[in-house]
Amino acid sequence: MKEARRFRVRPAYLAGLLGLALVVGLPQLVTSRYGTNLLILGAAWGVVALGMTVVLGYTGQISLTQAAFYGIGAYAVALLTTRAGWSWWPALLVGMALAALAGVLLGMTTLKLGGHYLAMVTISFQIIFTLVLANWIPVTGGPDGISGIKRPSLGPIALDSATKYAYFALGILFLVAVLVAWLKHTALGRAMRAVRENELAAEALGVDTLRVKVTAFTLSALLGALGGAVYAAGFLYISPDSFNFDISVEFLAMALAGGADSTLGTILGASLLTFLPEWLRELKNIYLVVYGLIIILVIVFMPDGLWGYVNLALRRVTRPEPVGKASRGLRVGGSGAPGEPILEVQGLVKHFGGLRAVDGVDFTVRRGEIHALIGPNGSGKTTVINLLSGVYVPTAGSIRFLGEPIVGLRPNRIARRGLTRTFQNIRLFRELTVWENVLVGSQRAGGGEAEVRERALAAIEFVGLQDRVHEVVKSLPYGHQKLVELARTLAGEPQLLLLDEPAAGLNQTEKQELVALLRRLHGMGLTMLVVEHDMSIVAQLADTITVLNFGRKIAEGHPAQVLHDPVVVEAYLGNREVALGA
Ligand SMILES: Nc1ncnc2c1ncn2[C@@H]1O[C@H](COP(=O)(O)OP(=O)(O)OP(=O)(O)O)[C@@H](O)[C@H]1O
């Protein structure tokens, strides 16, 4: 019997409808002044917490300074509307501009810092901000705060009652939620999530990780300030207590408890942390203990936040976006005369302290060839790949790609010129789907979203994973994960592909499938530099072999000649079985 077709809807439509219903319905349902104030507070906090979705949820950067951005927006509106007689809207713009500036500056600190150092910098910024608010009394009013803040009007409509203002605040929350949800699936949103999942892989695929992180901080600052401006005009009075470190921790908890990677999750978290304390007040003395326990339990036992569970249920009734079929094949290799030098390496040296990992290596990769780099463990092969792709800066020597020097360029710049790589231990964006992984790779080659999708589809079909596009890659078997990594680099249509041990961990059948794929790529004109220990694969594929030992080149040439060279046999091959031409 045929399975009954289930009713399936797009999650975005479902969420949009629900959101609209809440925006229209809630202020009518809540009749007390107290309840309406809570709605305004929840909306303002929701907007600020969505800033955390961008910086923490999407980009994976710890920020404990969101209350400072929130404060900048609130104080800009408070000061400019009370002392300078401005209206709310231009004051909002000033607040957002100031917060953005602070966001850029803080984001720049991420150029050098990560993890706990970054957390420390954001905490310091937050604490300095609170001290300034409390002590710069002539400007901020100090602990007494500022009262008499003006509310905005919406065209002819004066938002002079709490209920009208609640509509306005919830409307802003709704618009921000739509924008943040939309951002997730844009090129920038995908780049952010790639940075969160694996910064090095993102960079090697052409993502400017520094720019992405600064952008994320700036967006979170903008949303923080917007939420602050909504809050200030909602309550007409502000004081430093509302913008201190504790509140920053609360914004972090909202994002984590709800599910930082999800817009709806964050709103759920913000609602929980706004309303829970009010519900728990009945418990009087032990209310803070219960509140704290609930938050800890949610964060510890629900790693994807509350939303993780809702999402699981939703997946049953929603359908993923269909990706269609590629209308053209993969185009790789670029144009140029076959046999011309594409990569010229001269006198390449890399020292790690006293260790000479690469010690004066020269070789040339020619357009259209498969060039293998072989040698014993620790002979410097991966270091060469890291030098070519910009992960390491050479101690000495020159590298020219397509005739231009590339030493000193960051990996994303090198990748954008058409040189991409895979990694010895695969580095996928594990929490993203196959489709999203490959889209990030495809973004390297530029063009609009349609072109990016077209290339990604062509690459996925090329490796034969079209039936698994919507699977999260961490749940795929190892062999398929390797194919995703290959498709991800191919989608950017590189001119030169560096493959670091592509066959490691594959079984015999998978190895032969890989050989077939690489042969097809060779036939399509793609130039490849392959590091590989499996000599039967090298013998089947390579046009030229360079052999390293202790960081030096000991042989180079055609496989038939190199694999029988006594020096190579002595240093590396020993009694390895070499299936020449097998
Ligand atoms: N970041 C680093 N810091 C210090 N030493 C390093 C670093 N990277 C590599 N090395 C050292 O440099 C030498 C060359 O390592 P590399 O990984 O390039 O060798 P390989 O030929 O790729 O080896 P394998 O075949 O085992 O992957 C090794 O002695 C290694 O320990």
In brief:
The protein is of the alpha/beta class. It is 55% helix and 12% strand.
SSE blueprint and pairings:
Blueprint: H1 11-29, H2 33-58, H3 66-82, H4 88-109, H5 115-135, H6 137-140, E1 146-147, E2 153-154, E3 157-158, H7 162-184, H8 187-197, H9 199-204, H10 209-235, E4 237-238, H11 245-258, H12 263-280, H13 287-301, H14 305-317, E5 341-352, E6 355-366, E7 370-374, H15 381-388, E8 396-401, E9 404-405, H16 411-416, E10 419-421, H17 434-442, H18 449-463, H19 478-490, E11 496-500, H20 508-523, E12 527-531, H21 535-541, E13 544-549, E14 552-557, H22 559-562, H23 566-573
Parallel strand pairs: 7-12, 7-13, 10-11, 11-12
Antiparallel strand pairs: 1-4, 2-3, 5-6, 5-8, 8-9, 13-14
This protein binds adenosine-5'-triphosphate.
Organism: Caldinitratiruptor microaerophilus
GO cellular component, one term: plasma membrane
GO molecular function: ATP binding; ATP hydrolysis activity; branched-chain amino acid transmembrane transporter activity
Number of strands: 14
Described by the principal axes of the CA atoms, the overall outline is: elongated
Proportion of residues in helical segments: 55-70%
Q: How far from one another are the termini?
A: 49 Å
Please give the count of helices: 23
Poorly predicted segments? 1-6
Query: Strand count, sense and closure of the main sheet?
Result: 6 strands, mixed
Q: Which strand order spans the largest sheet, edge to edge or round the barrel?
A: 10-11-12-7-13-14
Structural class: alpha/beta
**Count of domains:** 3
Please give the oligomerization state of what you see.
Answer: single chain
Small-molecule components bound: adenosine-5'-triphosphate
Computed CA radius of gyration, to the nearest angstrom: 28 Å
The overall pLDDT, averaged over residues, is 89
The portion of residues forming beta strands comes to: 5-15%
Transmembrane segments: 12-30, 36-60, 67-86, 92-111, 118-137, 165-183, 216-239, 251-276, 288-310
InterPro entries: AAA+_ATPase (IPR003593), ABC_transp_permease (IPR001851), ABC_transporter-like_ATP-bd (IPR003439), BCA_ABC_TP_C (IPR032823), LivM-like (IPR043428), P-loop_NTPase (IPR027417)
Protein name: Metal-dependent hydrolase
Domain ABC transporter: 343-575
